[in-house]
Design a protein that fits this description.
Layout: H1 10-24, H2 28-35, E1 41-45, E2 48-51, H3 52-60, H4 71-78, E3 83-86, H5 87-92, H6 97-114, H7 118-141, E4 159-160, E5 167-168
Antiparallel strand pairs: 1-2, 1-3, 4-5
Helix pairs in contact: 1-3, 6-7
């Protein structure tokens, strides 16, 4: 099995996530991954889930079968500040995705701090801050109950969600 390149950065992984969303998620291959319970782990990022090995392959240019999945692949992306979650746990929760992802990022940061990897620790904290900021922006424009996009007149000012009737709390 090939050793994964060490010079791959968080930005390389972000580019791979973007590429996956554009090129693979809309295809049959992307839909099959979403439905395949054999893939137990996923990168959780901004409310979406991504196949760990596929993202690493996109970021590094390595063939999928040239490296191992599981703990090795999971560690590779967590060292770059990404949360890896069990799909069965992530899919079964009824909470907003950013909460689970934030908890996972906190756990990653704690481990990195404990092992003295302060470069990746800071990256994990930056990822957490970005996650919380994105969640806050989403909360300003979407209903807390049904996640419907609120009309501009209701965004951030309070009111009632036209889709489900929930009270929108002003920020």
């Amino acid at each position: 099995m090939a050793q994964l390149p060490r010079d791959i950065t968080r930005e390389d992984i972000l580019a791979a996530l973007d590429r996956y969303d554009r090129e693979i998620r809309p295809t049959r291959e992307g839909q099959r991954w979403e439905q395949n319970a054999a893939h137990r782990w996923a990168i959780a990022h901004e409310g979406r889930f991504y196949p760990v090995k596929q993202i690493i392959a996109l970021a590094t240019g390595e063939e999928l079968r040239s490296f191992s999945g599981g703990p090795e692949a999971n560690r590779y992306v967590t060292q770059r500040g990404f949360a890896v979650v069990r799909r069965d746990e992530a899919d079964s929760t009824n909470e907003p995705a950013f909460m689970q992802t934030s908890r996972d990022l906190i756990q990653v940061a704690q481990v990195l701090h404990q092992v003295g990897d302060h470069v990746h620790y800071r990256q994990a904290l930056r990822a957490l801050a970005t996650q919380v900021q994105a969640a806050f922006q989403h909360a300003e424009t979407h209903c807390w109950r049904c996640d419907a996009l609120l009309p501009e007149s209701e965004q951030g000012d309070g009111g009632v969600c036209p889709a489900c009737g929930a009270q929108v709390v002003p920020f």
